[in-house]
Each structure stands twice: as C-alpha cells, then as structure tokens.
Amino acid sequence: MRLGMIGLGRMGGNMTIRLMRAGHEVVAYDRDPEAITRVREEGKGSARGAAIGASDLAALCAELPAPRVIWLMVPAGKPVDDTIAALLPHVAKGDVMIDGGNSNFHDTLRRGEELRAKGIDFVDCGTSGGIWGLENGYCLMVGGDDAAVSRCEPIFLALAPEDGYAHVGPTGAGHYVKMVHNGIEYGMLQAYAEGYEILHESKHFDVDLHKVAAVWNHGSVVRSWLNELAESAFAKSPGLADLRGYVEDSGEGRWTVQEAIDIDVPAPVITLSLLARLRSRQSESFGAKVIAALRHEFGGHAVKKEE
Q1: pLDDT in tens, 22-44
Q2: N or C: which end of the chain has fewer CB within 10 A?
Q3: Catalytic: 211?
C-alpha cells in the first residue's frame, strides 16, 4: 500500500526503509532534504517498494490516494500538534493519522477526540526497537478503532517481527502501554547498572565485566536483550571510560510514575530509577552538601571542602 511518513530521523528513516523492503510505497517528508534523499536512494535498491520525496506536507497529501494513511514520526508534544494542524487543510474525512512517537497518552486522547470530530481516525502506535528495528523489526503496541487499525494492519505487519504487533485497545491505549513499557525499562536498566557497578568497584576481585555479561546471557535468569547490549558495550570499552554518567529521560518514566500515583499503585523501583537519572545529571548535588553540613553541625563529622 502507499502511505505517508513524516519524520525521517533515526526511527522514521529506518522504518521507511523497512516498509519499502516489504513492498510498500512511502511518500516521505522531513524538514531536512538530505533525509528525504537518503530514503529515496534506499528505495532505488529495494526489490519492490519505493520512496517518493515530498517537498512539503501539501505535496505529501497530494501523492496519497484517498482514504489516506499518514504516519507521524516526530518528537512528542508541540511538534505533533503543529504537524497535525499543518496537515488538516490537506486531509479529508476517512483519512487515518498514525502517531508512532512517544506521546503522552493524555495528549493522544485529546487529539483522538479532536480528529474524530472532523471524521479523521487517529491511531497511536507505541514503537520499540531502536536502531536495531530496521533488521530485527519493531515491537508495536497499537491503539485505535478496530476499522482504522485493520486498514493499517499491513503496515504494522511489515514493521514488526513475527508476533511483534498487538492491537491493545482504543485510541490512547497504544501510547499508554508503551509508557508503562518504558517505565519497566527504566527499572531494568537501573538494576543492571547497580549490579555491574558493584562488580566494578569490588575490593576483593578484579571482575571482567564483559565475561560476566557474556555468561549471564547463556541460561541465566537475568539474561535479556539489554544484557546482550551490556556484553556488547563492555567488549568495546571494558571500563566505559569514554562515557559520562549522564542519563537523560524522554518523558515516559515520569509519566509512568505520575500515573502510578494517580491510580494509587506503588511503583518504588520505577520511581527510584527515575530519580537516579535525575541525580546522574548533577555534577555536584546541593542536597548532598546540605546533608554534609548538617552532619558536621550536629555531630562534628568531617567534611570535604571545595578546592
């Protein structure tokens, strides 16, 4: 089928290539003309599919047969609203928009209602797989009306590995499930981080972290794809000396913690893993200074002064 793809970054670009390899035609748009050129060139080497470059959103919509299917792969928040607003003059009743980014499900619910009133279906697709998705496929958690999801199913089946796509509920459900997915990811990453740090800092043993990660990936109850990535990372840099311990978050962990609070579900592991990320961004913690000062005041405990 022919669909539009807006946003050709690390995820959107690779997803476009995977769709072309599966025989789909993709009308591609990005603010960066070089990104459009890249997928068009990739399309020339595809056995069946192809990419058509669009100069703007109006041109993209003009290249799509009605009813249109348009996939948005842009950053969460205002960029999604701005893109939808820019598309509205060029779409019609019966068209489908898919948001494949990491949007807040509250925003997705709002957008779904607004577009439904205009006769446009809004499908949300939580997408996991990162840079490995091009070859391995993407895990897709899809929310939307049955009819709209059914129309788009050939796209989802092309992007996902076998059994890697599920329709999880109405509009908003896909981003909700992906939010919790990423919250779980926060906790798993933190557990691996703490375990490997204990091994790295051991006063008793000089532990080869790459060797440990490798053996854990064979029969251990803690084996996982994340640990396979740890094995790969330690093979490249055993002590990770070239990295700073600065860890960003893209929002889903915060949203998961807030949702847990809103529905009175205790989620201490995910919450603490989020707080650990915040701590990683401080070169010096003022809170730690306060604790040091108070310990000195009440107990005369030694403090370290800035040099």
Answers
A1: 999 999 999 999 999 999 888 77
A2: C
A3: no
Mean pLDDT, range 101-105, rounded to an integer: 96
Q: Exactly one of 63, 114, 185, 228 is catalytic; which is it?
A: 185
pLDDT tens digits, 69-97: 999 999 999 999 999 999 999 999 999 99
| Residue of 42, 178, 231, 259 with catalytic role | 178
Tokens of 107: 């925003």
φ, ψ (nearest 5 deg) of residue 98:
-115, 125
Q: Which region, left, alpha or beta, applies to residue 195 given φ > 0 means left and ψ of -120 to 50 means alpha?
A: alpha
Q: Tokens representing 284?
A: 């010096």
> CB neighbours (10 Å) of residue 147?
10
The residue to which tokens 């204990």 are assigned: 198
- The rounded radius of gyration (Å) of the Cα atoms in the chain is 23
Assess whether 185 carries a catalytic annotation: yes
CA distance linking residue 185 with residue 13, whole number of Å: 24
CA–CA distance, 47 with 116 (Å, rounded to integer)? 37
C-alpha–C-alpha distance, residues 72 and 123, integer Å: 10
Q: Distance (Å, rounded) from C-alpha 6 to C-alpha 114? A: 20
What pLDDT, in 10s, does the model give residues 116-146? Answer: 999 999 999 999 998 899 999 999 999 999 9
